[in-house]
Amino acid sequence: MRTVAVLLSLLATPGLIAQTAVSMDDFTGLSGWRAILFEEGAVPSTFDPVPGDGGHADLRVRTDGGSSMLLYEEPVNVNETPILSWRWKLLDGLETADLSQRRREDAAIRIVVSFRNPLEDLPWWLRIWAAHQERRHGEVPPTSAIMYAWAARPHTEPAFPIPYTDRIQIVPVEYRAPGRRWREVTVDVAADHRRLFGGDPPPVAFVAVMSDSDNTEESAEAVVDYIRATRR
Q: Looking at residue 137, what is its pLDDT?
C-alpha cells in the first residue's frame, strides 16, 4: 500500500483564515472533496452520496480489494478548532485485517487528519523532499498524519505508528462488528498530536475519509453522516 507516498505528496490549498468551525455535514455532489488514489492503476475505493436524515446526503464508502481516500480541500486549523467529531456506521467489515501488522494494515473506514509541518521541524531526508515539493508547487505539502480507524480487531495500544513510518499514527477508535447503529466519535486532534508527536500541531491540516482492503483483498462498506471541526 502506498499510503505514505500519497499522504506525503498531497498538494496543499490556500492558507487559513481564523476559524470557529468547519462543517462537513452534507456530501451532496461531493462539493469541496477530491478523490486520491494511492497507486496509479490500482483499484479505488468508492465514495458515493446517499440520502441521509434531515434532507442532506450521507457518504457511502466501499472497498473491494482497493485503497483510496476522499480529501476535503478546505484546510483546518486544529489549534483553533481542535475538536473533531463525526458519526459513522459499519455495514460490512473486514475479517483478517490487523492495523499493527505489515501487509494486513487495512481498515473499512478511517478519518484521516494530515498536517503540513514547517520545514525546520522535519528530519533531514523529509526536509529535502518537502523543500523540493515547495519549489515545485509553491508550498509545503502535508508530511505527517493521524488516522482514526474502525479496526477489524481490538488493539491493546491506544495508538501506534503504521508499520512503515512513525510519521503516520493510527488511533483505533472503534472495532465493533458491522451493524445498522450509528456510532458517534469525538477526538481532540491537538491533544492527540501533542501525545503522539510531542508538540503542538502545525496550523495547517486536512481532513479525509479513507477506506482500504488492498492487503487482505476483502470487501467492506460503511456510511459517514457528518464530520465537524469545532472549538473546545
A: 55
- Residue owning grid cell 491537538: 190
* Full domain range(s) for residue 9: 3-230
Q: How far apart are CA 44 and CA 12, in angstroms?
A: 22
Residue 189: its pLDDT value, please?
97
CA dihedral 139, 37, 230, 172 (to 10 degrees): -120
d(CA 117, CA 96): 34
pLDDT of residue 136: 64
pLDDT at 12: 41
Q: How many domains does the chain have?
A: 1
User: How many residues does this entry show for the chain?
Assistant: 232
Among the listed residues 69, 149, 163, 156, the one whose alpha carbon sits nearest the alpha carbon of residue 108: 149
Cα separation, 130 vs 94, whole angstroms: 35
Query: Is-above-0.85 flag for pTM?
Result: yes
User: How many angstroms separate the CA atoms of 171 and 145, rounded?
Assistant: 11
